[in-house]
Structures are given as structure tokens and as C-alpha cells.
Amino acid sequence: MRAIRLPAFSIAASFGTSAATWVLLQQFTVRGLVAIKFLAIGRMLGPSAIGSVSIALLGVAIAESLSDTGLPQAVIQGTNTPTRSELAAVWTTLATRGLLVALLLIALAPVMNSQFHLGNALVLLQLAAALPLIRGVASPAYFVVQRNRGFQHIAGIEIAAAFVDCCTGLAFAFGGAGAYSLLIGMIVGETLKSTLTWATMKPRPPIRAAWSGIGHYIGFSRWIWAGSVVNLLLNQFDKVVVGKLLGPAQLGAYQMSSKLAQMLLTDAAFAMGQYLFPTFSAQHRHDARVAARLVKLYLVVVACGLTMFVVLLRMTAAPLFALILGPAWMSAVPLFKIFVINMAIGALIAVLVAYLRAVGDAKATTHASLIQMVILFAIVPPLTHFWGVTGIAWSMTVGMGSAATWMLYRTLRRHNAPSFP
């Protein structure tokens, strides 16, 4: 196979401001800090407390997905760099969205507390409402820096926020704050991140209400929104079912097995997706044929590495849980063995999504999500009836495999995608 030489877009290890090294360093550090916090607090508090926090974050994820504007991705993918007035309209839209989501979560907290049988977790649910508001007021210059592939700058902010999040969460956990410690750490970390986007990133948009000037983003962003809504059903459907039918303790075991598999397999791929989306976008604008060739190379390398890692993790699942989380979590081992397959597929999807969005084919990812949703609705009831929570986990894996197959088909059939030489 002929070597691909792309000096301007090389991912060779370097420390230039646009090097993939910064994305990998960011992912390794941030996910490592999240893992330390999550696993340490999980070991201290047990499945039930983790399940309660998971339901609080579930509410945030649902509200944010339903209100996703798609504007960040549109800014990154667009042909022209946004002006300050356009960024002001982006900020107004995102800040308003964050405020409305926060108010909605506060209003619905009593209903969620009752429906998921959480007992005295009302304040925990309301505290989570601060997260979308803090994220919404961050500077949209962050997206411009992503567009310009300023990965060194982004890595500095993300690592600083994750470090503060981890330290704060652990401090409150050891101080006896219980499940609240996880959310308090996240709130402090997000506050620092939003502050740093305004303090260190340019161009700074004027802080004023502006609603016009971003209509040209709608054509692309509407597919992002549609994808977010469908992905909401796909990514949160299983958690809602487990939490509603089986309660916080079972949800905690389900979430921990999923989270650990995600940390070990999917997070690194999503980090590469953060690098690949703006990189593929820039390369596609420059030479679409080379971008198509690159995505094939990435897919082959990622698939081979994931296969070996999945086999290793399934063989060592029981001792891994015993060492990291302790005997209280051993019931989650069978779920973990399923989720490592699930998350490996998710890692491949991260590469495919980055490419398809970069070339402007965001609707392909939405179509894949719709396929996954139809399959899930068809197989979840019977598999849950016969195998309970294990059936739900296998259903998610089959659905993700179907979505990945569709996106791979769309990627390979593009007219401007040549075969390997």
C-alpha cells in the first residue's frame, strides 16, 4: 500500500499547536482524571449512589439532546470563518438554550424523583440543572479554535477543568458529601472551563442579545439536531428502562460496567474524532480524494487494534472489577463483557461520524441512528423478557452494529472515494 504523505495534516507525534498529540494527551489526561474520580467514588459509595447520580445526569442528557442546536458543528464545518456578529448570535442561542434547559430540569425534578424511586434525591436532581446553564454561557470562540485546529489551546483548558473537577469531587467525597460530590466536582470544572473560554480565546463575541445572521448554518445544523434527538432515544433508552424497572442499584451496576468499557475503549476514539472532524473538514476542502483515502486507513488501523483489546478485556474482566471496584460490583462483570463489544463498535462509529460530518453528509449519521432505533424497538422487548438487563445490553450492541454498518456503507460508496492503490 502506497504511503500517504500529507505534511500539512500529518498526525505524526509532534507538539505543534495543531498536532494530534495534543488531542491524545488531552484525552488520556481528562479521561484518566474522570476515571480516578468516578471509580474512587463508586468504590466508596456503591451501586445505589452511582445510580442516583446517573439518573440526575440522565435528565441533563435528555434535555440537552432534545434542544441541541447543532451550531458548534456548523461553525466548525462551515466554509467561511464566522464573524463576531455571527458569534454573538451563536452565543445568544446557546445561552438561552442553557437557561431554558436548567429551568425545565428544576421544574421536572420532583417528577423524576418519584418515577425513578430515588427517595430523598430531589436536591441532587435540581443541582444537576446548573450544568447546561454553565455550558451555555461559554464563549463560542471555543468552536472557532476547534475549527482552526488549535488543539494545544483546547487541551490546556480541558485538562485544567478536568483536574479541578477530579480534585473537587474527591475532596467532597472524602468529606462525606456522598453522591453530591460527583455533581459538585462537575459544576466547578465546567465553571472553570467556561471562564477560560472567555479569558483566553478569541475572537470574543459581544455579549448582547442577537438572533440574526446565522441562518446559513441551519441546513447543516438541522441534521445535527435530528441526529441528537434520535441518539437521545438510542443512548438513554436503555438507562431509562433499567432505572424505571429495576431501580438505582441495578442502574448503578449497568452504568458502571458501561462506563468502564467506555473509558477503556471508546473515549480514545472520541478524542481522535475531535481531531479528525476539523482535520477531515479542512482536508476535504483542500482535496476530497485524499480525505476519503485517509478515513479508510484510520478504519483499518482502529478495527485491528480494537479486536485485540476486546479479547483481552473479556478474558480479564473478573479480576479487573475485583481489583478496581471491589466485591460489591462483581454482579456487573457479565454486563462489562458485553459492553466491551458495544464500545468497540462505538469507537469505529466515532471515526465514521467525524468523516461523514466533515464532508457535509450529516444526514447519513442520522439515518444510521434511525436504523438503530428501529432495530432496538423491535428486539428490546423480547430480549429483555428472556434475559433481563443482559438482554438490554445485547440489544444495544446489535443496534450499534447495524448503525456502524450503514455508515461504513455510506463512507465507502461516496463517488469521490477512490480505492486503495
TrEMBL record:
It is a multi-pass membrane protein. InterPro entries: Poly_Biosynth_Transport. The keyword DNA damage does not apply. The keyword Membrane applies. Signal peptide: none annotated. The chain crosses the membrane at residues 49-66, 87-109, 121-145, 157-188, 260-277, 297-324, 336-356, 368-386. Keywords: Cell membrane, Membrane, Transmembrane, Transmembrane helix. It is found in: Cell membrane. It comes from the Bacteria. Belongs to the polysaccharide synthase family. This is Oligosaccharide flippase family protein. It comes from Paraburkholderia solitsugae.
